[in-house]
Structures are given as structure tokens and as C-alpha cells.
Amino acid sequence: MSVRGNPKKYDRFNNVDDAWTLFNKMIEKYPKPSILEFTKLLAAIVRMKHYAIVVSMFSRMELLGVSHNVYSLNILINTFCQLNQIDLGFSVLGKMLKLGIEPDVVTLSTLINGFCKQSKISQAVCLFDEMVEKGYQPNLIVYNTILNGLCKTGNTYRAITFLRMMEERGFGPNIVAYSSVVDCLCKNGLLNEALELFSKVKAKGIRPDIVIYNCLIH
């Protein structure tokens, strides 16, 4: 199989063995494929949820002196976050800064998601605030991640405040976001507040889904 000239194969595999075979062929090439080509391979393996293999491949790449970019390092950060090893994710961030590579929104969003995944919502909010202060523009996915994290950890009033902030900043919450808050309100016995928010959702022209109805019924 030719490593160069058929880039589509970098992100399409039937199994992990195929990925390892391609990786081994790539590292034996001279000159070696670009980091972009390695990144396609690694991203495909992440989608297959074989995180330990991604770490192993990164280690091999390190030994071979393959230069990284923000995209490849973001993949490694995400891998550690998926493995609930967020401290190692921050170590990669430190390495990124040491190499003079500027973190992007994806870098910080991934770490925020890592905190939320471990129910460390206070750390997630602090990183979010720091992200905004430094001039990064969080996207709707980041806002929804924080909001969902607040709801799952029972931070009802902080969730409502965050929801209002989203609206004020022009990040119109979708039905999934509203459903999360309604569910949180119901679970904390705040049915009137939940019904009020439900009415607001309908007034905005957002069509309620089965999830939000189930929250109110139960």
C-alpha cells in the first residue's frame, strides 16, 4: 500500500490491525509522511475509541522525532481526557506552550470537556472564564458542555445564570440545553421554575421535544 498518494486511507480502516499496519509503513518511509498525514490516522483511531493505541503511537512518533502541530497535540489531549487522565492532558498543553504552539479553542474546549466528564465543574468554569478573558471565542458546543456539566452536578442556579449569559451573548440555547435545565429544576423540586422556563421555550418558537415533556411529567 502506498502511503503517499492515497490520503483517503489514513482515516478509513476496518479494524485496528489495519491502522497499525499503516502506521508501521508510515514510520518506515523516508522521508516520513507529514504530521497532517499522521494526524488523519490518529483521529481515525480516536473515533474508534482505541485511546491506548493512540498514546502508544504518539510515543513511537516522539522517539522518531516527528514534529507535532496544534491538531496532533489536540488529539493527544482529547485522548487523555477520554481516559480520565486530565492531568496528562494539561501536561500536553504545557508541552504545546513550550514548543511555541498556540493553543486554540479546540484545545481549551477539550480540557473543559475533560473536567466536566469527571464532574469537576468548578475547574471547568474557571478554565472557561480564563478562556474568555484571554480573548478566545467559545462556541456553542463549549457553552452546552458547561451547562450540561452544571446540570448534572446539581448546580441549578448556576445553570440558570449560565443559560441567561448564553442568551445575552447571542449563543441561543437549543432544545437540548433547555431540556437539561428543565430536568435539573424538576429534580431539585423547582417545578414552578421548570414550567416557567418551559413556557419561555415555547414563546421563543423552539419546539419542545419528548425529553423535556418527560422531565415535566416525572
UniProtKB/TrEMBL annotation:
Keyword Metal-binding set for record: no
PPR repeats: 69-103, 104-138, 139-173, 174-208
Keyword annotations of the record: Repeat
SUPFAM superfamilies: HCP-like
Family of the protein in this entry: Belongs to the PPR family. P subfamily.
Name the record gives this protein: Pentacotripeptide-repeat region of PRORP domain-containing protein
Native organism: Gossypium raimondii
